């Protein structure tokens, strides 16, 4: 009876220590879960704020006012739009490089397709 009692006490102590360790492990994991959930909520709030800012910054009227203030751009007039065949008429004269031929592969313009 003594050996069975001793074995039963040892098993009870081992189970108690195991439950104790598991309890603290679960509490640690719950704390991690709560931290992650808080971070998720904060990230969702930040995303909501960023979407609101994005909507504000992309308002057409605001962009139009900023473009008018900071860019020296004007609307395109119908006279500025030409057919492809008339582009050569609008370009400045460059007798050394014809418009319809690619640039020569020698000198400073080697490999360039556009005028400097």
Secondary-structure blueprint:
Elements: H1 2-57, H2 60-70, H3 87-90
Quick structural gist:
61% of the residues lie in helices and 0% in strands. The protein has 116 residues and is mainly alpha-helical.
Head-to-tail CA distance between termini? 104 Å
CA radius of gyration is 38 Å
In total, the number of strands is 0
What sequence of helices (H) and strands (E) makes up the elements? Answer: HHH
The major sheet is characterized as:
none
Chain oligomer state: single chain
Count of runs of 4 or more consecutive helical residues? 3
Overall spatial form: rod-shaped
Given as residue ranges, the uncertain stretches (5+ residues, pLDDT < 50) are none
Mean pLDDT: 83
Content of β-strand: under 5%
Which range best describes the helical content: under 10%, 10-25%, 25-40%, 40-55%, 55-70% or over 70%? 55-70%
Secondary structural class: mainly alpha
């Amino acid at each position: 009876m003594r050996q069975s009692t001793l074995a039963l006490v040892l098993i009870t102590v081992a189970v108690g220590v195991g439950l104790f360790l598991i309890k603290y492990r679960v509490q640690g994991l719950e704390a991690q879960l709560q931290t992650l959930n808080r971070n998720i909520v904060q990230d969702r709030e930040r995303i909501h704020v960023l979407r609101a800012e994005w909507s504000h910054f992309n308002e057409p009227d605001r962009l139009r006012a900023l473009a008018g203030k900071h860019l020296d751009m004007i609307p395109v007039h119908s006279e500025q739009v030409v057919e492809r065949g008339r582009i050569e008429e609008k370009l400045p004269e460059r007798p050394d490089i014809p418009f319809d031929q690619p640039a020569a592969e020698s000198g400073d313009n080697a490999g360039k397709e556009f005028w400097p």
